[in-house]
Amino acid sequence: MKKTGTYAAKVGLAEMLKGGVIMDVTDAKQAKIAEDAGAVAVMALERVPADIRRDGGVARMSDVAKIKEIQQTVSIPVMAKCRIGHFAEAQILEAIEVDFIDESEVLTPADENYHIDKHKFTVPFVCGCRNLGEALRRIAEGAAMIRTKGEAGTGDIVEAVRHMRDVMSSIRRVQTMGDEELVRYGKEIGAPLEQLKQVRELGLLPVPNFAAGGIATPADASLMMQLGAQAVFVGSGIFKSEDPAARAQAIVYATTHYKDPHKLAEVSTGLAKAMESLDVRSMPEKELLSTRGW
Amino acid sequence: MVKANIPPVAGLLALQGDFEKHKAALRALGAEVIEVRTEDQLEHVDALIIPGGESTTMTILMPDSLRSSLIQFASSHPVWGTCAGMIMLSTTRSDSRVRPLGLVDLEVERMGFGRQVFSFEGELRLSERLAEHERPFKGFFIRAPRVKEKSKELEVLAWLNDEPVALIKGNILLTSFHPELAEDDRFHRFFLSMIDKSSSRKG
Q: How far apart are CA A270 and CA B90, in angstroms?
C-alpha cells in the first residue's frame, strides 16, 4: 500500500536538499551548467530576478516547454515558480511533475488576499518569509519548506540576513515562553498556535529553513549557513555573473565547507566579476519584492 | 570486541544531504556523532553513514583523496548508505553523472519509482535479523533508487511487496528508503549493533 503526497513525503524531499545549493535557471543549457557545478536542484523561471527588475511588466510562471526541456536535461530535482495565490499555475506545474513549487514573491502576485492552499497538492511547496509569523502562516497553509525572501535580484545580502536573524531570534524567544505568553505572542505575530508550539518544542521551524534573496558570493552562502540556513538558493547571482560555471561551483563548495575559512578563502580566489548589484537601501519602496505576500 | 561503556562514534558524510535527521536518531540511541567532510575526520569514527541527498552533488563534492579514504575505511568498518548513499556504495553504471564507490555488486536505477509526485510512504516487511521483525516498518521513499540487479551475496533485510529495499553484505548496509524520517529506530539500532560487532572499534 503506497501513499503519495503525504506531508512527511513532501518535507522529506526538503530534508534531502539540505547542505545544497538550488540555482535559478531559465533554460536547459543553464540547468546543465548548474547540475555540472553540483547544484542540488534547479529552479525554473521565465527570467532571473535581476531581469524581472530591469524589464518590469508582469512576471509569470515559466513556459511549460522550457520546464520540460530542463526536466529532460538534468537528473536533479526541478523546481518551478508560480505566482502568489495562482493555484492554476500550481496545478499546471503539478501536472507536468515538477518536484517542488515555489509560490514566489519574485513573480507578480495574482491574489492580494490569499496564498495557495498547499495541502491540496501532491507536490511540495516552498514559500518565502521575512519573519517567524510569516513562516508559520505559510507552514499552516501546507508549505513543506521555508526560505528567507531576502531581496531578490539585487546581489545585496542585507535583507536575507535581516530575515534569517529575525526568524532565528524569534525562535529563541519562543523557546522560553509559557503557554499564556505563547498565545499572546501568536496573536502579535499572526502565527497559528499549533505551529508555534511545534517551534517551542523543536527549537527550529517544523520544516527545513533555507536562505534566498541576494546571495552572490561563496562568502554570502557561508554567512547564511552560519546564521542558521540549512541550504541556499542562488538566483541572479550565478547566471548574471561573468563566469557562471566557476561561480556556481565555488558557491556549492562554500555551502558544504561553510565552517572552514581556509577552504572558503580558496574558492573566493580569482573569481570573475560578480553580478551587477543594487544597494537595497537606495531603492524606492515600490521596487521591493520582499513586501509582496503577507 | 564489545566496549559497552564507551559510546560508539558514528560519522555522517556531510558533503550534502539529510545528515541532521540521522544525527538525531543516533544521538537518541546514545551514540556520539561527528560530521565528516574531509578524509582526516574519518580517522575519528567507528562507522559511517552516507545519507540521502543528490548523488550527482556528492560525486562532484568528493575529491579523489576522500574517495580512496572512504573505500579503504569501508573495508574494515560498518558503512550505511541511505537512498543517494545506497547509489554511492553501489557499482551502478546507469548514470554517467554519478561516480559510485563500487563497494557492493549492485545495479540500481536512480529515481526508479519516479519523480517527487510519486514519492511515497509504504509498509515494509522485515527480515528476522531486525528487532521485532513481525511489526512492519514505515518506509519513506523520496525520489528513491530501485534495485535492478544484485549479487547473491547481498542479503535482503526488507521488502516492499516482494521487492528488495534494504540489503546487507558484511559490514555494508544499504536502504533505498529513509529510516531516519520514520519514528522508528530499528534500523539505527541495527547499525549500532554492527559497530559493536566490528573488530576495528576504537576505544
A: 37
Out of A9, A19, A37, the one facing B121 most closely (by C-beta) is A9
Count of helices and strands (H, E) across chain B? 6, 11
Does A142 lie at the interface with B, CB-CB under 8 angstroms? Answer: no
Number of Cβ within 10 Å of residue A29's Cβ equals: 12
Quick count: other Cβ atoms within 10 Å of Cβ A241? 23
- What DSSP string describes A140-166? HTT-SEEEE---TTS--THHHHHHHHH
Q: Could you give the C-alpha distances from A63 to A81, A82, A93, A135, B37, in angstroms and in order?
A: 11, 11, 10, 29, 39
Q: Please state, in angstroms and as integers, the Cα–Cα distance from residue B4 to each residue in A246, B1, B192, following that order.
A: 48, 9, 11
- The architecture (CATH level 2) of B9-195 comes to 3-Layer(aba) Sandwich (3.40)
Q: Could you tell me if B53 lies within 8 Å of chain A, comparing CB atoms?
A: yes
Contacts across the A-B interface (CB distance below 8 Å): 123
Contacts of B20 in chain A (CB under 8 A): 15, 18, 230
Please state the φ and ψ torsions of residue B128, each to the nearest 5 degrees: -70, -5
Closest to A105 (Cα-Cα) out of A152, A166, A159: A152
CA distance B199 to chain A (A): 32
Residues of B serving a catalytic function are 83, 178, 180
For residue B19, give the DSSP letter. Answer: H
- Pairing mode, strands B155-160 and B120-126: antiparallel
Residue A191 falls in which region: left (phi positive, over 0), alpha (psi -120 to 50) or beta? beta
* Helices marked H in chain B: 19-28, 39-42, 55-61, 64-74, 84-89, 186-197
Binned at pLDDT 50, 70 and 90, residue B1 comes out as very low
pLDDT digits (tens, 9 = 90+) for A57-93: 999 999 999 999 999 999 999 999 999 999 999 999 9
Amino acid letter, A225 = M
Residue whose C-alpha cell reads 540521522 in the numeric block: B22
ipTM over 0.90: yes
Dihedral, CA of residue B59, residue B65, residue B71 and residue B77, to nearest 10: -110
Per-residue pLDDT tens digits for A255-266: 999 999 999 999
Q: Which helix (H) or strand (E) holds A138?
A: helix A132-140
B95 lies within 8 A of chain A by CB: yes
HEC-encoded secondary structure of B55-72: HHHHHHHCCHHHHHHHHH
